[in-house]
Each structure stands twice: as structure tokens, then as C-alpha cells.
Design goal:
The protein is an alpha+beta fold and 125 residues long. The chain is 34% helix and 22% strand. Strands 4-3-2-1-5 form a 5-stranded antiparallel β-sheet, with helices on one face. Strand 3 and strand 4 form a beta hairpin. It is globular, with a radius of gyration of 14 Å.
């Protein structure tokens, strides 16, 4: 069985770090990315960043909903239900992402950016 290359993750972490550095403390961007990456596994999947990169949105695979967390160089806060009514339960992550208002996001995680291309192609948002 072959090992997964870190090359793909380097690009993702670089894009996250660049976006965070543009909106927050550049000197802490790499540490923030490492904490986001650690939280992006198993039950929770990082979808993107909002609110000037102050809030990370995650998909909760168990309850099939979006949760959010504040994060900084010390770590990711407890994941919680967003205060907005915008985040209801969905059939799945793809269902949520297809209706998401990406214009208000600071970053869509690279694994989901294909949805941006489809939305533009289909004339949505």
C-alpha cells in the first residue's frame, strides 16, 4: 500500500495560510492552519472560512449539518451550531454547498472549489 504524498496537502495548507495571513496576523497563519488541519478529520470536514477568517465552517458528518468555530494560533474553539438560521440540516454536505452563498466566504476549502466553477458555469450566484 502506498503512502499519501504530502505534496497535495502542501498546496491546501499554503492556500489556507495565505488567505489567513491576508486577513489576520501573518506571523500566526501557519499555526492557525495546522490547528484547522488537525480539526479537519473524521467527524468534521473543513468547508471554508468566513468573517474575515475569524470563523471556520465545518461539516459534521454525524448530524449532517454545518458547525462553526473560532480559531487562532492556540487552536480551534469548540465546534458549535452557528447562530444563524441559515444553517439547517441538509441531506448531505453537497446539498449544503450547492446552496451556499460563497460570495460572503473568505475562502472555500480547495476540495470544494469545483462547486464554484459549476456555479459560475450554470449562472448561479
Amino acid at each position: 500500500m502506498s503512502k499519501t504524498s504530502d505534496g497535495a496537502f502542501t498546496h491546501v495548507r499554503g492556500e489556507l495560510a495565505w488567505t489567513i495571513a491576508m486577513n489576520r496576523k501573518p506571523s500566526e497563519a501557519v499555526a492557525m492552519v495546522e490547528h484547522l488541519h488537525a480539526a479537519d478529520e473524521g467527524r468534521f470536514e473543513l468547508l471554508g472560512l468566513t468573517d474575515d477568517c475569524e470563523i471556520a465552517l465545518f461539516w459534521d458528518h454525524v448530524f449532517r449539518r454545518v458547525v462553526e468555530a473560532e480559531f487562532d494560533a492556540d487552536g480551534v474553539d469548540n465546534l458549535r451550531d452557528p447562530e444563524s438560521d441559515e444553517f439547517d440540516r441538509y441531506e448531505g454536505r453537497r446539498d449544503y454547498l450547492r446552496q451556499a452563498d460563497f460570495e460572503s466566504w473568505d475562502l472555500v476549502h480547495p476540495r470544494h472549489q469545483w462547486l464554484l466553477r459549476h456555479a459560475k458555469r450554470d449562472g448561479v450566484r
